[in-house]
Amino acid sequence: MKLLSIFLLIPFFSIGQIVITSSDLPSSGQNYYYSTILNTLSFDVNLTGQNYTWDISSLQADAQDSLITVPVSSTPLAYQLYFNNFLLYPDYLASYAQQGNDLSLMSTVTITDRYDYYKVSSNSFSIVGFGANVNGLPTSVKYDVIDELFSLPLVYGIVDSSSSNYLSTIPSIGSYGQWINRYIEVDGWGQLITPNSSFDVLRLKTTLSLKDTVFVDQLNLGTSFNRPVETIYEWYSNGVGPPVFSVTVQAGVITQMKYLNQIGSSLNQQEDLPIVLYPNPIVDELFIDVNSIQIETISICSIDGSLIREFNNQNKLSLSFLESGCYILNVRTIKGTFTKKFIKL
User: What count of Cα atoms within 13 Å lies in the side-chain half-sphere of residue 9?
Assistant: First the structure.
């Protein structure tokens, strides 16, 4: 396991306090790539305040993660009932979808192939429902009370709470529902320094409480149970989209920590260049297709442009020597030099 150290320093300089609006949140059809820290050590996430500096530049990634925002029209048609229907369900018209986690409850309810539907408006950021295969049947589930993640604009000092719920009928079984409570605090602002960059940020603290309920018609029996309370810390910056850094805590233990290392567009986007990389992300081997153009040299650089290694004319590279992360590939050909980005898992 890699050793991890995090230093949270009180700043010696002053920066301006930022405001997060709808234009600063994720948009449809984008890929955002994260470095995930699996071997997290405890540190005091309660340290925060005004004009504060969080220095996480010493973080070392153990794995890669991604957040992919999918156009609503690209999700299964059966899921779109409530979320792509402006005339009948304008309050549930989603801005984008994001693939969610599978769920199994008491061997009675299984939820697979899930998409959560997000709505970004000028005054709020919300989840309006989800689509999934519920016990194998395509189902569209709108929240009876929409789950507001937070109101907008997001500014330092906001303290707020929201409650939401849904209850969905499951054919031949009964019903399944969930009650969601959020307590949010914008408890800090300042600068976040990551291994790749630095950002002016607002910090959002969310205390999330969930209760699941299942009712089985044949048994005339229902049960409810609370999930462990989670506290989620997120650092938002202007013009980025998702949080640039996030930490999830359960029972005083950090269960997840990740920072953004690629902002915006998909790394697989071709950008009108006659060069294709696959697979991307990669494990060990990277293949390069330049449409019969003669390759002269290839270089691998870090995300900040520092040269790591050069290769001669090759269409297949063995990159097992690279650590996990985001890299730049420069391919010099007889028709010019082309640049692409890729992820090493």
Answer: 12
Burial 205-241 (b: 16+ CB within 10 A, else e): bbebeeebbbbbeeeeeeeeeeeeebbbbbbbbeebb
- Please report the pLDDT score of residue 12 as a whole number: 36
Residues sharing a CB contact under 8 Å with residue 297, sequence separation 6 or more, in sequence order: 310, 311, 312, 313, 332
Q: Which residue has the tokens 């462990």?
A: 228
Cα-based distances in Å from 31 to 64, 71, 99, 211:
13, 12, 12, 31
Is residue 69 within 8 Å of 30, Cβ to Cβ? Answer: yes
Torsional sign, CA 144, 147, 153, 157: positive
pLDDT at 39: 62
- Residue 271: band (very low, low, confident or very high) from pLDDT cuts 50, 70, 90: very low
Query: If we measure between CA atoms, which residue out of 315, 283, 317 comes closest to residue 300?
Result: 317
pLDDT range class, residue 2, cuts 50, 70, 90: very low
Q: Is 0.85 surpassed by the pTM of this model? A: no
Give the span between the Cα atoms of 136 and 158, in whole angstroms.
42
Which domains are assigned to the chain? Answer: 7-262 (no CATH), 276-344 (2.60.40.3080)
Q: Residue range 153-173: average pLDDT?
A: 92
Among candidates 155, 193, 197, 152, which has minimal Cα distance to 18? 155
